[in-house]
Amino acid sequence: MFEAILLTVMTAATPLVIAAMGELVAERSGVLNLGVEGMMIMGAVCAFATAHMTGSPYLGVLAGIGGGALFSLLFGFLTLTLVTNQVATGLALTILGLGVSGQLGESFVGLAGTKLQPITIPVLSDIPFIGRVLFAQDLIFYLSIALIIGVNWFLFKSRTGLKMRAIGDNHGSAHALGINVVRTRYLAVLFGGACAGLAGAQLSLVYTPQWVENMSAGRGWIALALVVFASWRPWRILAGGYLFGAVTIGQLHAQAFGVGIPSQFLSALPYAATIVVLVIISHNRRTTLINTPASLGKPFVPDR
User: Is 2-117+132-291 a CATH 1.10.3470 domain?
Assistant: First the structure.
């Protein structure tokens, strides 16, 4: 039974980890993208629609990534080229994404989905407990682990990652050193949108292989909180994602066991936990200030 619960926690945590990793990269470049929820739901509807029409969940994954990336380009154009307010633009794109996805997915409501099947690794998957947990998972789970390793190396071991962090800390100085701030931020935003789209694809192809309007259910906002929770460190996002995944699955099991607590309260637990964590983190202002990119959310225009 513990194995089954752990597997469901991993499935619930995976989209949070992926979306948060994408947002972490964007914020490390100095861009605050509050449109993660909208990009995630666009990825979910694009993935489901493509998988349903082609019969291939892998094409669905690519479509989900593309849907999130295209939506992020709109965010990038508005905030980086037209220099609109990042907070207002992100909120507007979240609302737009929820509306557009509902319209696009209207004809797919109630249809059977095409589930992304686990990749079973011979011999290793037969190991008791560990085998099924680590070596019989779907492609997106393995991508989430690869993302954490890759992003951690990129940010702290590569020259390009160092330049990106320099932009996030002081875009003016980075520009004076000849670093192309706008191009770097475009690439970071595009990566963040692709990750949000991949997270959305996981929702409609793995977590719940069907299309339901607003099925992201606030996970984009939790991913945003995860970045702060992790203090902009990739490995901490893994721990935070699985913590929130455990809370999400825990409230479902509590309802199934008939715990004498109102179901509405249990359903609100993941979001209440998010608020509690943010309150706790805010008390340690020194750590927060040290790790927060100094140029986060600040517009940049080269000729100013």
Answer: yes
